[in-house]
């Protein structure tokens, strides 16, 4: 085990215990910047943690940015990138002007392992498990796709009603505790201004809507900001990204995360699909974790800075 | 632990809307137990699918008889997973 977050190895994949232990170390090392919040429990009873980065000393709900990684458990580069982001925030605060300005005015919430049961399962039983681990009545098939379980055109085309498929939407909106925990948190907080949900792979930056081809009311601004973010990302290592609405760029996806957050009034709602090399898919070699995180961070900073400078 | 020996990931190129529909028909053949890593979307965009060893021949025949071009993106999924595990063990050691 790493003794601290400086000696933690960011160039390999880690188990859930190792990531949770990393979070504890980061909190202990940065007590005035980082705290850990439990927002709920998984179906199998694991705690669901969010790191809060805040420079405020008051009990207030400042405008905030939400970032989550690992809602699809097999997308290991996302949890690994989330870990790197957490360290990056603590390293760059008071060093990087843009991040410092953001953190002096806003809070950042980072959920590194959004689907802990699924992630633990990928380490113990099935590396390619994607869904949650909840039991479904009347079938031996397990889990639901937590990115089809949100109350945004739930159950409409672009999700499956068959519990044995990878895109099974679940019994009802928010039936997955991993989803409900975020829903409750967002609705209680009431001041989240950007919500960024990070997946892999395909190299895409997407915005609402996924359930309809109709453009979102803020389509023009979302598209311009996506372009700026993708340009910043590509400038780091030359990785090429496409961007656009979920529906027009990939396919119809109902009940997805960012359609719900956008519907809640969070204008800057985005979802990433991080890099693949065209050869590895979800099995991205560990040597690519840091380059992936570095380029994604450039895009995240673009979105966070824009959010900070365009209050609404 | 789930074994992925002999599983292949195929990259399929659907040239037009009709071919996208053909891949969607393939997606519905549940007995093949396919795992679409990147689903059928628009003509020209690639589709990646993990095919269990037992279904490899049937899927390739389906694609060839439908005039769909494909390449093998991952020859043996388990070999990659073994490499990944070795790297993690090496780090832990």
General description of the model:
- The complex is a heterodimer of chains A (312) and B (93).
- The N and C termini of chain A lie far apart (44 Å).
- Chain A is an alpha/beta fold and 312 residues long.
- In chain A, 36% of the residues lie in helices and 16% in strands.
- In chain A, helix 6 runs antiparallel to helix 9.
- An eight-stranded mixed beta sheet of chain A has the order 1-2-4-3-5-8-6-7, sandwiched between helices.
- Chain B has 93 residues and is of the alpha+beta class.
- Helices cover 40% and strands 24% of the residues of chain B.
- Chain B has helices at residues 17-27, 56-65, 77-92; strands at 8-13, 35-38, 46-51, 69-74.
- Chain B has a four-stranded antiparallel beta sheet with strand order 2-3-1-4, covered by helices on one side.
- The relative contact order of chain B is 0.26.
Task: Summarize the structure in short.
The complex is a heterodimer of chains A (312) and B (93). Helix content of chain A is 36%, strand content 16%.
Radius of gyration of chain A: 18 Å
Q: Give the % helix of chain A.
A: 25-40%
Distance between the termini of chain A: 44 Å
Number of contiguous helices of chain B = 3
Radius of gyration of chain B: 15 Å
Number of helices of chain A: 9
Which H/E pattern describes the elements of chain B?
Answer: EHEEHEH
Distance between the termini of chain B: 21 Å
Helix-strand makeup class of chain B: alpha+beta
User: Secondary-structure element order of chain A, as H and E?
Assistant: HEEEHHEHHEEHEHHEH
Uncertain segments of chain A are none
β content of chain B, as a range? 15-25%
> How are strands sequenced across the largest beta sheet of chain A?
1-2-4-3-5-8-6-7
- Contiguous low-pLDDT stretches of chain B (5 residues minimum) are none
Give the largest interface: A-B, 22 and 26 residues
Mean pLDDT of chain B: 94
């Amino acid at each position: 085990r790493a003794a601290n977050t400086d000696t933690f190895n960011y160039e390999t994949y880690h188990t859930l215990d190792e990531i949770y232990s990393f979070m504890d170390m980061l909190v202990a090392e940065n007590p005035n910047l980082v705290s850990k919040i439990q927002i709920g429990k998984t179906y199998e009873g694991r705690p669901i943690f969010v790191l809060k980065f805040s420079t405020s000393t008051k009990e207030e709900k400042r405008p905030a940015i939400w970032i989550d990684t690992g809602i699809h458990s097999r997308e290991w580069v996302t949890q690994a990138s989330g870990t790197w982001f957490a360290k990056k925030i603590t390293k760059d605060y008071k060093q990087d002007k843009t991040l410092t300005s953001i953190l002096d005015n806003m809070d950042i919430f980072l959920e590194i392992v959004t689907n802990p049961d699924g992630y633990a399962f990928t380490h113990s039983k099935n590396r390619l498990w994607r869904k949650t681990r909840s039991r479904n009545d009347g079938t031996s098939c397990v889990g639901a796709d937590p990115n089809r379980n949100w109350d945004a055109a739930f159950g409409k085309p672009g999700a499956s009603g068959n519990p044995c498929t990878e895109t099974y939407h679940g019994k009802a909106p928010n039936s997955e505790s991993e989803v409900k925990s975020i829903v409750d948190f967002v609705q209680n907080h009431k001041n989240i201004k950007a919500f960024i949900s990070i997946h892999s792979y395909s190299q895409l930056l997407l915005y609402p809507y996924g359930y309809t081809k109709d453009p979102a009311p803020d389509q023009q601004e979302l598209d311009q900001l996506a372009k700026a973010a993708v340009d910043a990302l590509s400038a780091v290592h030359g990785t090429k990204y496409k961007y656009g609405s979920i529906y027009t760029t990939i396919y119809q996806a109902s009940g997805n995360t960012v359609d719900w957050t956008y519907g809640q009034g969070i204008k800057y709602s985005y979802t990433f699909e991080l890099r693949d090399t065209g050869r590895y898919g979800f099995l991205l070699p560990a040597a690519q974790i840091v380059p992936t995180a570095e380029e994604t961070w450039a895009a995240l900073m673009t979105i966070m800075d824009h959010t900070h400078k365009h209050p609404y | 632990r789930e074994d992925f020996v002999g599983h292949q990931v195929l990259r399929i190129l659907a040239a037009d809307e009709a071919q996208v529909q053909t891949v969607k028909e393939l997606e519905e053949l549940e007995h093949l137990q396919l795992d679409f890593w990147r689903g059928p979307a628009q003509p020209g965009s690639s589709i990646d699918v993990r095919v269990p060893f037992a279904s490899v021949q049937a899927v390739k025949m389906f694609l060839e008889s439908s005039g769909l071009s494909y390449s093998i993106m991952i020859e043996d999924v388990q070999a990659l997973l073994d490499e990944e595990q070795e790297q993690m063990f090496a780090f832990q050691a």
